[in-house]
Design brief:
CATH topology of the largest domain in chain A: TIM Barrel
Radius of gyration of chain A: 22 Å
Helix content of chain A: 25-40%
CATH architecture of the largest domain in chain A: Alpha-Beta Barrel
CATH class of the largest domain in chain A: Alpha Beta
Oligomer: homodimer
Largest interface: A-B, 56 and 56 residues
Structural class of chain A: alpha/beta
Largest sheet of chain A: 10 strands, mixed
Number of strands of chain A: 21
Distance between the termini of chain A: 28 Å
CATH superfamily of the largest domain in chain A: Alanine racemase
Number of helices of chain A: 12
Amino acid sequence: MPYLDLIASPTLVINETITRANIQRMAEKANRHGKKLIPHWKTAQSHEIGNWAKEYGITEVTASSIKLAEYLCGQGWENIHIAFPFNVREISRLNRLAENQGISVQIVNTSTIQALADQLTQTVGFFIEIDAGYGRTGVATSDFQTIDAILSISKTSSALQFKGFYLHPGHTYYGVDKQKIHEESREALHILKTTYQSSYPNLVTRLGDTPGCAVMEEFGDVDELGPGNFVFFDLMQVQLGSCRKEDIAVCLAVPVVDINLERKEILVHGGGVHLAKDVLVNADGSKNFGEVVLLDEKGWSIPSHYSYMKSISQEHGIVKASDELLAAVKVGDLLGILPVHSCMTADCMGEYLSLDEKKIDHAEGCH
Amino acid sequence: MPYLDLIASPTLVINETITRANIQRMAEKANRHGKKLIPHWKTAQSHEIGNWAKEYGITEVTASSIKLAEYLCGQGWENIHIAFPFNVREISRLNRLAENQGISVQIVNTSTIQALADQLTQTVGFFIEIDAGYGRTGVATSDFQTIDAILSISKTSSALQFKGFYLHPGHTYYGVDKQKIHEESREALHILKTTYQSSYPNLVTRLGDTPGCAVMEEFGDVDELGPGNFVFFDLMQVQLGSCRKEDIAVCLAVPVVDINLERKEILVHGGGVHLAKDVLVNADGSKNFGEVVLLDEKGWSIPSHYSYMKSISQEHGIVKASDELLAAVKVGDLLGILPVHSCMTADCMGEYLSLDEKKIDHAEGCH
């Protein structure tokens, strides 16, 4: 039965070919630059998609939470890095997790490393997260005092192994000068590496943001690349220039439940609980919660006429429709919606349907 | 063990006393006005909370999707109404659901009622949804032609039973004149009732929005009230004047992972995948993704000093903290966050923890 006939309700469709091409392209780029690609798996959150990634030489992944790390555990990953400032209330979960799985965590202050030094029963690696100007989280680049204090405390526990420095320059998402941010980030990691390499000859530096990793071609002495969103991409990444619309690997199939010819609107079953509520702004100032593509038995195509989701509530989505779409659509049809933020959409949906009718796992669907 | 000691990771805490008080207050108000309260269960999405509601005379609920209706099925509800324009791709699911459960659906056009007339094998009720100016979905108040056509088609199937008119004046959420919207909505339902009552003597009218049902005291000849959010309330409802902050019945407990004294910010594990990304705007123009409350063993208290979640990403939340909070907080503590939109937060979390340490079910947590 064609995959479209399996869809009665909002369903996240994945195009395996596009997904594999995205992974392959980034893996080849990392190879070309002599870097190790360790993708952030908060986007895909899937064993099956992990198996695809392994075919392109991926051996380690990153998780956004201990919950996701627990899900990914035991799937043959050499190491799972939890790229979130470690939460000391989860130390006993971490000890259990690290019994049978290579794990590393992220440190941004001394009190957390002290708690780990006191309570870890298993060997765990750690990265120190560096803030080079994003302002969300991390030790400031020049705060050698905190870095030294963290390293000093870590030496009191044989369970703690310093791996290196991690930097997520998330401000590349805000439309400022990406090139400059990328250079500053690289430079920050370079200084840290040269400062600490004599004491820690095996330390590595990791830089992880999709806009930077997708577009830049100069990575200096950075050792590892850690982008996440590139596996699927989305409309936000298109706007940032990281990819083309044709590279977006997932779309939400939504049933048409009503059509308003006068207002040129199509009501679909697909709302905030499916897409999440991330939003872009169109050139005319209107909001865009997702863009319409035309589903067919081979996947989807991007129409020359533009239609988009203009508003969203818990379950409802209202599509502002082109004349061409209005002329073609009827109640009971399916439309495809390219997501604004694919990580959030996948997290909401908790499962994928492939074009060859396979259900593909996602951590959130497996309670 | 006190409930706080059970919390290691982001957890949605529910205060049963406040929840019951919210349900009781609305049930008493409906009784006082001689109306039937049929709450929209898209907010709570829970069997256990449904059992609480039954103690206040609630016998029917509303679902936002067939998926939620399936979850709520078989729990003793006399009827479950699916208050979303019916999706014709789900007719076979509807037939299965209606085998053992009183079900009604919502109709906004003729093609959908035709498909139901053709394919229903079980008895199903239907409401015609009316749009009295919100502009999201529904038949326009004055569009008697469409209403007549829907009713005419429905008569061709003995499986279809017309129940009445449903109106959700969601524009009360947008800060315009609530009183006027409420009066227009009531008037629209009154006209429809008087027009169709001679042909359908048992028809009922239902009005469902929390701001209107919470604040207004005049419901005219409306038969049923269908608010949803009032079960928990949230910061948006506080802003709309529907409730006090003290009436909010759920809060997200989030672990503190870092503190930045210089920026007066607290980094917590609690992001868009937990709270959703609904947002309010503070008086100074800054964004507010949730407000900090102080957790204690009896629940939480609202501090006199204001701290709020100023930004949010997939897993991260950054709290802009008052001096008092900064002076008291340490890494590893838990903070409570009152949600901006409790329906979305509950949907993200898929489970509640009560103050007496019970896990309480939510449809999204039970795959």
